[in-house]
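Cross-posted from the bioinformatics board.
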Amino acid sequence: MARRTVVRVASLTSAGLWIALTLLGEVAAGPARAVGAVAPAAAGAALLLAASGGPARRFPAAASVLALGLASAGLALGVGDDGAAWVVAGLTGACVLIALAGRAGGDVPPGSAALALAGAATVTAGLARVVATTGALELPVDGLLALDAGLLLVGGSAVVAVAGALRPRRSAALLLPVALAIGVPSATTLGAAGDAVALALVLLALAATVGWAATSAQFPDARLLSAALALVALAAAAVPTSGIPGTATAVEGAAAAAGVPAAWLLATAAVVTAVSLVPLAGLCAIPGVAALTVVLVADPEPARLALAGLALATVVAAVAAVGQQVRGGVDDRPRDGASAGSQPALGPLLAAVPALALGAWVLVVPTSWTWVGPVLLEGWSYSVALGAAGGLITVVAAAAAGRLALPRPPLIVAPDPVSGPHPGGSGWLVAVAGVAVGLALLALLASA
Amino acid sequence: MPKLLLEPPDPNVPPRSGSLAALGPLRLSAAGAATVLALSSTGHIGVLVALLAVLVAQPLAVGAVLLAGLAVLERWGSPSLEAVAGAQSVLGAGGVVGPATAAASAWFAAAALVLASPRAGGGDDGGGYDVGGPDAPVGSQRRGSRAGALVVALATGSTAALVVAGPEFAVDLPVRLGATAAAVVVAAVVSSQRWQYLSAGLALAAAVAAAALGAAVTTGRVGL
């Protein structure tokens, strides 16, 4: 229990620092730089490890913390000369440590560790191809790589990301944001082949979603949603633009490729969902899906419009499948045989609260996330504010008219002890007055 | 005659997928929010589509709403509702102007939105509106059901009207008002029926047609 507490505290502290760096913008400390997606990805990895609390035994616990440190350091050093090497080294080192920890009684089964290692090996092979074709340990400035190098990087990142998404509340989960931080910039280097790769990724996500929902004896849970969002994020980044170069370094977030901002938003949603494991957390993917759709329709070709439809279908299918879990009752039994009572609920809660807050921020004001780049969601925040006002008026009016039962709020002020409670029957007056005030506020808001 | 329960209901029976048995504050607020956005023709189409998706909830209907939104995006090339209404204010109603394919896309999208209207239940089937509790007279339960159908119809109908005949109110009030009223009436009728799965399926089919026609226009395969 004490080791888990140490891991949790260290992870939460790390997450807090990285979130602060995200808010500060670009920060440099020697060769390490927190620019673009570096700080958000590192914060996501820390939150995922904090949600798990790590394994209970000494070496696995230390290995999980060391894995987080390696991955974060790799991201921070990835922006600069030979940046791709540092990022890939950090990811590979983290995968090896998690696999070793699993063998020593950690919280990751051999299958997941093997999958993560296979993905890391694929990414490393992709980096080797980059060196062989360009002679440099970084992604090219002009945005295009040899196709095999790009495919290896994207494919390996997808494998590692899925391996992390399918093992939430375990050490391996921290690999999800790190893999996406490699995969998203790598996907921009595919050039004209990006359409086909994006289509393949979305079809894979859709097939996995339908297959899991159709064949699983248990209801699909939020792991499915997180994995599907990760794959759609990589697909969004792979969508090529007409003649605009891709990223210059491995993890620079503000890329010129049009699908990258949507990809980062979707990646954020995948991480938030993996931290909280609440299906409703998938709502924070809405801005990413909307941004991706706008990008695809802006440069319409039949393949891209089909991709837009498939991406929408994938997200809908994943949400519907996971929603069955909510409507059908949650199965609280641990799925991998681990004891559910060995981890306190406080740890996941402490990680999920900031994650959900960030997710709500993405949902309401996605345009304020400048690190994702220029996202095509003008007017989004205003729509959310206007819609929230309209929804609130509707609910209040319905409740005041007695047509909707709301949970009774706790009593914080006692009624007047002299005159006593007022008689009822004024519900309609209250409703009319409330609607009138609400409409006036709406008019004021619309005139702004 | 008071209701007489013969046996307690299974506490673990979930609401029917896509039914309005679970319509509560969340979906009611989504309906109100969507109505405000559609009537004011303000904001981002993604937000409106997301609110309608929360309202309709049933997977087929959600797919229909999303594809209808995609069709509108393809038709007008902008996610801004102000742009959609403004273009119709200048050019004319979306269901009339432009090539026949584009107009057909608008009509199919509107049909999809109307057909996606979820059923607003009430009374014994666990409808989402509390109309006085289990001892409320049946009449008040029917009023609750009609109120629910109206709320749902306002959201989906006003959005459908925006798609097919949505000039700004200040520019062409009779057209916009008439289209909105007609669409709300049709949506209310759909919402009050019991064949929800059939209407959701038809909505999805209409939405697919709308998206396909919109794609044909926007990719230039059908001349402008």
